[in-house]
Design a protein that fits this description.
The structure holds three protein chains of three kinds.
Chain A lengths: L8 H27 L26 E3 L16 H5 L5 E6 L6 E8 L8 H5 L5 E3 L14 E2 L1 H8 L20
Antiparallel strand pairs in A: 1-4, 2-3, 3-5
Chain B lengths: L11 E5 L11 E7 L2 E8 L7 H7 L2 H9 L6 H16 L5 H29 L4 H21 L8 E2 L2 E2 L7 H24 L2 H7 L7 H7 L4 H4 L7 H4 L20 H25 L18 E9 L2 E9 L5 E7 L1 H7 L1 H4 L5 H11 L3 H5 L1
Antiparallel strand pairs in B: 1-2, 2-3, 4-5, 6-7, 7-8
Chain C lengths: L1 H18 L5 H37 L15 H11 L10 H17 L21 H22 L3 H32 L4 H6 L17 H14 L11 H4 L9 H26 L17 H20 L7 H29 L1
Chain lengths: 176, 370, 357
């Protein structure tokens, strides 16, 4: 074991003084933080950042975008690609119709199984399925986690375009 | 009072965990104690086994990617990086330069975030609860940047085979730069509050000694190994992506105790800040994705790819049989190997030292048990 | 003010009892009961208030908000928590020693209350005037050290190894830190020449702030010594080893739930506040006003005393949320190798000062 106290009185006093000083410095730092405003948000009350919304592209609850000209009023062509790529197999689609009229009559997403990986959104050829920035999906009943066609359509009604991240990225700003 | 000859002292066998505040998850330690002294420690792992390696054999290469986040949940970017590199190497795909830079940036940001959790947790383990909250305060800013870029805070699923989910969102670089400008001051604050505190020093100096020889023979990697005086960092030893072009130090400490590992991690956070500044200065424009086939069918073969995760050498061993799904995938988990050296470090320790040593190993049970 | 009320009540009761031909000894008995209940209520309220303050202060120190949902600024949070604990099931673990498991929190709580009896709340003595306070210092120290029995009972009776370890740590720590604490207090006693807490206050009241013991250089060592040892006595960080949550889960009260747990918790804060009170009495002039004697502001002495104690408690809370925890061997070597010699040194200094200053 390491020796913790000095061999002589002078060492002991020095260690004690340094220790006391380090404790005072610590007290100073916590004291400063005591006065500083905190960073926590009063979450359900939302008076801290009332207009906060996650960025587009946030992986929240699902929505199906609507297209009034298509049967069923949805963009979805029921190609089952999202159902196939889903790693958790939480999407179940019952298609109907042939060719251009193909559309889902049942579209079920079990968000209790879903891991919100965005693969279904990525794979969709017509950008019909998307994820909204809605993150408040907690519930105490498991069956409430299942989204059916009506819920998804209702959620997608007010979304004009799929939620995508702006393509413009940052480049080197030269150390500005 | 008379002496009772039948009264003898007994060794105490205690189960520490799987539900214990400071075994960092669900690790079970079987302790044999002589009062406060520890005679023997036997870690019992496997409580968080989630068969992530077997799941890979069920899913195709793309589908498995979100699962890599779940495996070491504090450095999801590093896991994704290792897996994506392995698959890309099997496919013979080279990501674009911009993609490489962004991947390195994300990995370094994740290193800071992960070390911050470690830093706070070690403070918590030694009884200083406040520094934990301070670390989480700063980590929150990184997580916000990650959320902006990838859409989620913890399980990013940002990298894709052949590229990224999307380019950096607007405002990302500015946000990162303002964080980087402020962060070294915060580290100085933690340093004064925790690291230089006399009580913390006496709790960590000379505790949990791991000799370089023992560390190497146990296969210990990462900051734990560098805390034992072995300057081994895969970003230097087997550089990948743009690391050869970047300038950084590999902090190493010869002492081999808890404090040495702590200081190595503290210094690594600052080195990551340095690296991120360089990344921001040199981030090239251009495409982020390369074209990969819709069905990923690598040629039969096997590959082992390793990166430096915040915890050490994170390796992916991948065998392809030419089908859409991996034939076998194995994670070389740094936490698992680092944990093997734990009983060695705990020789002659006190009960209180156990948690400090465990904290200094920075294990993630998801990483240990997979 | 307090003694005025007490005297008035006493006179009233005496008059009534005389009118009804009741033996006057019942006046005393009634006074004891009233005093006891008053102290019980005071300790409960103080504990609830300080648990709330601790949570709020720790929240602000850690850039958090602390409790803020129940009532304005969350002031009813701890009261609600106490109510919740009342409703909770009282779980006695299998194989536990039921009697000890029950007696532990009670002993801890009762002993915590007893110290309050001798505190001079204002000029003229203690709240119920029922304890002869000539040896108040001795009394407080004696009952302070008794609380270790409650901890040992709880830790042993729980049939849990963590509890046992915590209880043994607690016993070792509290008994060891008695010694430096005693030495620190003896320095003050030497200078005051009395074991009575009232006398100690009386000697600090004349010039207000300026005559506090805190400003006497030969008492600076005892001040530091007392703060350290008292923190250890009430098991707070950096000396919270008996309940070190990152090592021993919750130490001696790991297996407690419901009201028994609340008893431990409340008594802990009761003890904590008692430390603040005694520190104020010994070094900060007790009930006397900091602006001179008699008080130019005419604020009752009990308010001054509570205020001073609150400041002391606030300082100790601040320390708690700053420092890490010592290890058990370091705790012992700090006590026996550092604090004890420093205690003797300060005794020497205080004795010299008592002789020549």
């Amino acid at each position: 074991m390491r020796k913790r106290y000095g061999d002589n009185l002078w060492d002991l006093l020095r260690i004690l003084a340094a220790g006391a000083w380090s404790i005072l410095v610590g007290l100073y730092i916590t004291g400063i933080n005591l006065i500083r405003p905190g960073v926590c948000e009063r979450y359900p009350r939302r008076d801290h950042r009332p207009d906060y919304q996650p960025r587009p592209g946030y992986r929240g609850d699902f929505a199906l975008l609507s297209d009034p000209e298509r049967p069923g009023g949805l963009r979805c062509i029921a190609c089952l690609q999202c159902q196939n790529i889903c790693p958790d197999q939480c999407i179940h689609i019952t298609p109907e119709g042939k060719g251009k009229d193909r559309h889902p009559v049942q579209f079920r997403i079990d968000t209790g199984l879903c891991q919100f990986c965005w693969l279904c959104v990525e794979v969709c050829p017509v950008a019909a399925i998307t994820m909204t920035p809605d993150y408040e999906t907690a519930t105490d009943q498991p069956q409430k986690l299942i989204r059916d066609l009506d819920t998804l359509r209702e959620r997608g009604r007010n979304i004009p375009e799929p939620q995508r991240v702006e393509p413009v990225g940052c480049v080197a700003d030269g150390g500005a | 009072m008379t002496w009772d000859p039948t009264c003898v002292t007994e060794e105490l066998v205690v189960n520490m965990g799987p539900q214990h505040p400071s075994t960092h998850g669900v690790l079970r330690l079987i302790l044999r104690l002589d009062g406060e002294r520890v005679l023997e420690v036997r870690p019992d792992i496997g409580f968080l086994h989630s068969s992530l390696e077997k799941i890979a054999e069920r899913l195709d290469y793309r589908q498995y990617l979100p699962y890599t986040d779940r495996y070491d949940y504090l450095c999801a970017m590093a896991n994704e990086l290792a897996y994506v590199r392995a698959v890309e190497s099997l496919l013979g795909v080279e990501p674009t330069p911009r993609c490489q830079w962004i991947r390195v940036m994300m990995a370094e940001m994740n290193r800071i975030a992960s070390h911050l959790v470690y830093y706070g947790a070690l403070g918590m383990d030694t009884g200083a609860t406040t520094v934990f909250l301070y670390c989480f305060r700063e980590r929150e800013r990184i997580l916000q940047l990650f959320e902006d870029a990838s859409g989620q805070r913890l399980l990013y699923h940002y990298f894709r085979i052949g590229g990224l989910r999307n380019d950096l969102p607007p405002g990302f670089c500015e946000g990162l730069r303002s964080f980087l400008d402020e962060f070294p001051r915060r580290v100085a604050e933690y340093d004064a509050l925790l690291t230089r505190n006399r009580i913390f020093r006496s709790r960590t100096e000379g505790v949990g000694y791991l000799s370089p020889e023992a560390a190497l023979s146990y296969g210990v990697t990462g900051p734990t190994l560098r805390g034992s005086g072995v300057s081994y960092d895969l970003r230097r030893a087997a550089p990948y992506y743009v690391y050869p072009e970047l300038e950084f130090d590999v902090p190493t400490r010869p002492e081999g105790d808890v404090m040495a590992r702590h200081l190595v991690r503290q210094e690594e956070m600052l080195q990551s800040v340095h690296l991120l500044h360089q990344c921001l200065d040199r981030l090239p424009p251009g495409e982020i994705n390369v074209k990969v086939p819709r069905k990923l069918k690598p040629d039969p073969g096997e590959i082992y790819v390793r990166i430096e995760s915040p915890r050490g050498e994170l390796g992916v061993y991948l065998i392809s049989d030419g089908s859409e799904k991996p034939y076998r995938l194995h994670w070389r988990a740094p936490s698992f190997h680092n944990l093997q050296a734990y009983p060695e470090m705990c020789q002659g320790a006190y009960v209180a030292d156990l948690v400090a040593i465990l904290g200094s190993l920075d294990i993630i049970l998801g990483d240990v048990d997979r | 003010m307090l003694s005025f009320i007490a005297n008035w009540l006493r006179d009233l009761l005496t008059a009534w009892f005389q009118a009804w031909h009741v033996p006057l000894v019942f006046v005393d008995i009634l006074a004891w009961i009233v005093g006891g209940v008053a102290i019980l209520i005071l300790v409960m309220v103080v504990a609830l208030v300080f648990i709330y303050l601790e949570r709020k202060i720790s929240g602000y120190i850690q850039s958090r908000l602390g409790p803020e949902r129940v009532g304005p600024w969350g002031i009813f949070q701890t009261a609600m928590d106490a109510l919740k604990l009342l409703q909770k099931e009282d779980i006695v673990p299998a194989g536990a020693d039921k009697i000890l498991h029950t007696l532990g929190p009670i002993a801890f709580f009762v002993v915590g209350l007893l110290g309050y009896l001798v505190i001079p709340w204002e000029e003229g003595g203690t709240i119920a005037r029922m304890v002869d306070a000539h040896v108040g210092v001795l009394y407080v120290l004696a009952f302070g050290s008794l609380s270790v029995i409650g901890i040992l009972m709880g830790g042993w009776g729980s049939n849990n190894k963590w509890s046992l370890l915590g209880a043994l740590r607690g016993a070792a720590q509290m008994i060891s830190y008695e010694v430096p604490m005693l030495l620190a207090v003896v320095c003050v006693v030497l200078l005051a020449g009395s074991l009575s807490l009232s006398t100690i206050v009386d000697q600090q009241k004349t010039l207000g702030l300026l005559s506090w013991n805190l400003w006497r250089p030969w008492l600076w060592l005892p001040v530091i010594l007392y703060l350290i040892a008292a923190t250890a006595e009430v098991n707070r960080t950096p000396f919270d080893l008996p309940e070190a949550e990152s090592e021993l889960v919750a130490g001696y009260h790991t297996e407690y739930s419901g009201m028994k747990f609340a008893f431990f918790f409340l008594a802990e804060y009761g003890n904590f506040f008692l430390v603040g009170l005694i520190f104020s009495v010994l070094f900060l002039g007790g009930w006397s006003s900091p602006f001179g004697y008699p008080d130019p502001l005419r604020i009752p002495g009990v308010i001054w005393l509570l205020g001073k104690a609150t400041v002391t408690v606030f300082f100790l809370m601040w320390v708690r949320w700053t420092l890490p925890r010592l290890r058990v061997d370091q705790l012992m070597s700090l006590c026996w190798k550092v604090l004890l010699p420093v205690g003797f040194l300060s005794l020497l200094i205080a004795g010299t000062a008592a002789l020549y200053v």
